[in-house]
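To the wet lab folks,

You asked to see what we're planning to order before we commit. Fair enough. Below is the target structure as tokens, and below that is the sequence we designed to fit it. If anything looks off to you, flag it before the synthesis order goes out.
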């Protein structure tokens, strides 16, 4: 008893399988593009939030320096100290430097396109000095004594 097996050339099955493969590849491509797009939006948002936080930080510290200048205008021999809470930025694990001189307060980093600056009025007979690495800092201090205003990461003892 022998069975006769006749093979027929049915190409529709192969075309269906090929369609499945191309559909899978198209889905993979679309998911990859969506993933890249979502990652780009996330990075842009994080960078924008960091820029806003750095701008707010330089304005907070600059305002505290202006208040110290106000105290110095009233009484040049006064002592003044104020703690300023800093907003967190994504780059808090890298070396972001805050510099204070007689003309301005600046936050710099080699990767920043433009430094964040706060120009001081310097309407008081004081000298402004200080440099702080903001790595890991959640607050900084503005001190004034003997006609010198400085920024520090420690309170006055």
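Sequence we intend to order:
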């Amino acid at each position: 008893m022998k069975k006769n097996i006749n093979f027929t050339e049915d190409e529709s099955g192969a075309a269906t399988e090929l369609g499945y493969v191309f559909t899978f590849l198209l889905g993979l491509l679309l998911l990859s593009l969506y993933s890249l797009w979502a990652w780009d939006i996330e990075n842009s948002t994080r960078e924008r939030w960091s820029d806003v936080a750095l701008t707010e930080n330089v304005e907070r510290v600059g305002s505290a320096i202006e208040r110290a200048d106000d105290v110095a205008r009233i009484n040049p021999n006064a002592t003044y100290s104020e703690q300023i809470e800093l907003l967190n930025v994504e780059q808090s694990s890298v070396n972001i430097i805050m510099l204070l001189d007689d003309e301005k307060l600046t936050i710099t980093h080699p990767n920043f396109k433009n430094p964040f600056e706060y120009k001081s009025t310097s309407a008081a007979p004081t000298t402004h000095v200080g440099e702080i690495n903001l790595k890991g800092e959640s607050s900084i201090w503005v001190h004034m004594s003997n006609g010198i205003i400085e920024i520090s990461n420690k309170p006055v003892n």
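Structural context that might help your review: The mean pLDDT is 86. The CA atoms of residues 34 and 118 lie 40 Å apart.

Thanks,
Computational group
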